[in-house]
Predict the structure.
Amino acid sequence: MITCTYCGYKCPDDAQICPNCGKPIIRLTVDAEPDYNELAKALLRETEQKEPISHKHAIIASCAVLLLALVAYSFFAR
Ligand SMILES: [Zn+2]
């Protein structure tokens, strides 16, 4: 059963147009589900791709901090 978005008539699932008002049936629930899955997959892909980059950035950042500390130490040690 699918409810017509125009008149609220309970139409059969395979109906292309509403038998009551004749307007095309818009399947919000059926159309929204694959989109949501695609979004979740895209988010998952994004996080998977971002993970090694963030690790690289963390290594670079820690190296920069170490180098800066070394420079500061050698500067203040004199
Ligand atoms: Zn209708």
In short: Residues 4, 6-7, 9, 18, 20-21, 23 surround zinc ion (CB under 6 Å). Helices lie at 28-77. Strands lie at 2-3, 10-11. Residues 2-77 form one domain.
